[in-house]
Each structure stands twice: as structure tokens, then as C-alpha cells.
Amino acid sequence: MAADTTDIDDIREQARRWLADDPDPVSRDELTAVLNGLPASAPELADRFAGPLTFGTAGLRGPLRAGPNGMNLAVVTQAAAGLVTWLAAQGATGPLVIGYDARHGSRQFAERTAQVATGAGRPALLLPHPLPTPVLAYAVRHLGGVAGVMVTASHNPPQDNGYKVYLGAELGGELGAGAQIVPPADAGIEAAIRSVGPLAQVPLGEPGQVLGDDLVASYVERATAVIDADGPRDLTVAYTPLHGVGAAVLTAAFARAGFPTPGVVPDQAEPDPAFPTVSFPNPEEPGAVDRLIALADSTGADLAIANDPDADRCAVVVRDDSDGWRMLRGDEVGVLLADHLMRRGVTGLYATTIVSSSLLRAMCAARGLPYDETLTGFKWIVRAGGGSAPLVFGYEEALGYCVAPEHVRDKDGITAALTVAELAAGLKTQGRTLTDRLDELAAEFGVHHTDQLSARVDDLRVIADAMARIRAVTPATLLGQPVDSVRDLLPESDVVILRTAAARVVIRPSGTEPKLKAYLEVVEPVVDGDVQTARGRAASAVAALRGEIAAALGL
Predict the structure, then answer these.
(1) N or C, which end of the chain is more exposed by having fewer CB within 10 Å?
(2) Burial code of 146-184, b = ≥16 C-beta within 10 A, e = fewer?
(3) What residues does the Alpha-D-phosphohexomutase C-terminal domain cover (predicted)?
């Protein structure tokens, strides 16, 4: 009991020091209430002070709450001060460009970042209102920013927020101009953040320059230039931004491109940080697109599209053979977009990640196009090939697509939606659909069936134990075939890859959520043009593979 009392006293003292330096009266009151609840509130207080949010290659992301292990004005002030100090130490010039979504705290965090930048003598350019992440990524390139900050938690739960950092050309180089940071920049920024002294001594300047909507118009103009100006436009689209910030920009882009304005799910059309109609604001989650499908049915839509809340991801929902609807997997949309660009004659490097389908590799090999495979994340995809050939397309299976790297060097759910619409409208003129094109690709390259085993945990030790288990007791066979290749990417990345002649499994912890993920793929040849039978065999094989991997991981 004495040790427990000592621990509580230590955490209480940490909390008092934090309160003395916290610039936000709201979070001070919140933390004071937790302190007043001791000793019953000791576990919660300990969690808030378990350690600071670590600034990594995804920046910061965490729950909105007082204390160092949360997103709040104090943490953001410290992060911004560390970032501008690091930029100055690199001798980098130019403005800091700042964007934000509509989550709780996003605008306040963006405005504080601008004040910290101007207080350090660096110009700050603030986007005019809540906007999609790809608009910020575009603005960093378009405005010649030294760096960019996007305040967003993407598709995380409503109680979260986050802080992404992009670099401009001066520090990011040709491949990383307008892209998210990669090592060693993340470690340098983290060290600078930890060196920030008392927040009361961080100078705060003017609010910075609030940009006009001409920036958004410029983004939309460039986005519509991604597709053929003279292509077919007869397409009825249903759309949802899932209470996020994508609707105004996406509908403007569709209108400028000449498509009929998509119908928008009414009760999900406006930004709402509570995300009231979905249990989890991610289009991949069960039930998230139910309202979208209802709208598509009622309007006779040819296609249904969803963005995640910051509109950097794009989900595509199509009619299936039973006159119902199904969401295409990210791998399916990825190869459809790649094939479409190839058919348009777009040459250059095509890239994806180690957890995505191997079909893109097969397509590039057959068509004589350069291909590269990277670690997970667009920060790596946009740097694929190391400059050996210009990147023209990249995707990851988690619904992220970059169809125009010179426009936005990151995933972009707006230009992806436009390009999907262009493809679907062209196929419609032939009496065909996106699923028909997928069948055509399967007939040529075989069925590449992908799926995912995803386990969300409350205790991160479950993930560590599972990764240790698969390394210690690696399966000798999968689906009755010998495992002929085992790759362990430690220490570079916590990833294990297993392969047989016809199957592949990639196992890794999620980088943004408390999840363990196993990415499954089975390649099934198509015999005598019978794609559907091959699909059935592949689906059965993947279901069996899921069970084998779950057992091997102890899940």
C-alpha cells in the first residue's frame, strides 16, 4: 500500500506541474476534477501521465483530454514550438501552411500552431475553414510552404484528434515535396519537442494569414485536370462524407468536371465531430455505409462513393449480381485505377505496399511498366523507386489512392473518386460495369482474392505476444502447402511475411490503432474463362487461411 501511495503522490505532483503550465482553462478544470477524485481516479490519472504522446512518422494522434498522454492545447503548443525550432535549425525558409478538419479542437489547435509559428518569426498560412487533408497537401506544394500541418484524426473515433506534418521541397526533396515526414525528420522533431521549456515562455505571435477560397478553387481546378476533359459523363453517383469535410470539395470537383452533382446522404452531409449516425467513422466498418446504400437504391445510382472524415480515403460501393450492393476492397479499386491509367497510356512507376495485393505487380510485369513495393503508408509510397522512374500511381489497400502525384503527393479521396467516376462512366457507355472490368482482369491474371484478419485489443501486450508467437512457432504449411518463404522485417519494421506457392500472409500491428492485422491473399488461376468458379475457390481458401492464421497467432 505504501508503494501505491508513493505512486499516487508522484503522479499528483506531475499533474500539479502540468496544471501550472497548461494554457487552456478548460483542460485545467478537467484535470483538476480528476485530481479531486483521488484516490478513486488514480488509474485514470496514471493513464493521462503514462508518458507523452510520441511524435512519429504519423505525427501525433490520441484522445482529446488533459495531460501529456492526450491531445490538448498544451501538447499542441509544445509540438508546434518543437516543429518551428527544428525547421529553423535546418535553415529552412518559407511559410508554414496549416489546415484542419471539423473535429473537436481542430480549429483551436490550428490557430495555436499559427501563433507559435509567427511568434518564432515564421509566416503562417491558415486554410480558410475545415477542409480535406489532400487540400493541405496540395497547398504545401502550390504555395511553396516549408512545411505543412494538418490537424485531423482521419477516421479515428470521435474522441480523438491528431497532428500530421508534411515537408515542402526544400527539406522533403523532389520525392517528398508535399509529402508526410519520414525518418530521420520525425526523430529530429520529437527531440526538439522534448527540448521545449515552459509553455509560458513560448512566444505567441499574430494569427497568421487566413487564406481565401481561391486556394480551394485552385485545388478543384487541378483535381479535375486529372481526368479526360472529353470523356463520358453520364453517371449517377450517391455519396457520403460520413459527417466529415469532403462534401463541398467533392461536389464542386464533380460539377467542374461535368458530372451530374452526386446525391449526398442528407444526415451525413454536414461536418459533425460527434459522427452521430455511425458507430465508427470509417467507411470500412460494418454499417458505416448503410445510409449511402439506401440513397443509392432510392436514386437508382450507378455507383456509390464514400470518403472518410478528412477525405483522403475513398470507398467505392457497387451493385452485385444479386441486385444488392457490396463495397469493393481497396485492392480491387487500386487495380481498377491502375489498369485505367495504363489503358489511358500513363507510363511511369506504379507502386503499392507489402500488404496490398500482388496483382499490380503482375499487371506491371505483363505490360512492361516499372513497379515498386514499399512499407505501409503513403509517406513511403510517394518515395517509391527512389527516383528511378517518375511515380504516376500509388495505392494502399486501406482505401488510399494517389492518382496524380504531381497534384497531391499523398492519398487523395477526391481525385480518386473523380477517376473512379471517369472509369465507370466510360464502361457504362459499353453496357459494362466496374465488376465486369474486375472479371476481365481476373481472367487475364488469375483471381487475387485478398482479405484481412483484424483484432482490436484493449491490452497492447496481446499484440506483442501474438507477434512473438508467430516468430517463435512459424507455421510449416498453410492450406496444405509448404511455407517456402518467411521474411521478418525487424528491426526496420514489425512485420512478418509468409508465402506458399499460392498464398501470402503479411502480419503487422496497426500504426494508428490498437489492432493486430494479418493481410491474406490467395491467387487462384481461372480455368476455361470460368471466373466465378475461380472466385469461389479463392474465397473458400482465404476463409480457411484466416482460421489457420488466427490459430497460429493465438487469437
Answers:
(1) N
(2) bbbbbbbbbbbebbbbbbbbbbbbbbbeebbbbbbbbee
(3) 466-523
Tell me if residue 58 falls in helix, strand or coil: coil
Question: Which value, to the nearest 10 degrees, does the dihedral of the CA atoms of residues 11, 14, 15, 21 take?
Answer: -170
Predicted confidence (pLDDT) per residue in 259-269, tens digit: 999 999 999 99
As annotated, the active-site residues are 154
Contact between 509 and 517 under an 8 Å Cβ cutoff? The reply is: yes
| 383 CB neighbour count, 10 Å cutoff | 22
Using an 8 Å Cβ cutoff, are 101 and 309 in contact? yes
Q: Identify the bridge partners of residue 353 per DSSP, sorted by sequence position.
A: 374
Q: How confident is the model at residue 7, as a pLDDT? A: 84
Q: Which residues contact 6 (CB under 8 A, 6 or more apart)?
A: none
| Cell output for 480 | 496444405
432 backbone dihedrals φ, ψ, rounded to 5°: -125, 170
The DSSP 8-state label assigned to residue 331 in this structure reads H
Provide the grid cell at 77: 503548443
**CA–CA distance from 40 to each of 30, 34, 50, 475 (Å)?**
16, 9, 17, 46
Q: SS3 of 80, please? A: helix
Task: Note the pLDDT tens digit of each residue in 412-432.
Answer: 999 999 999 999 999 999 999
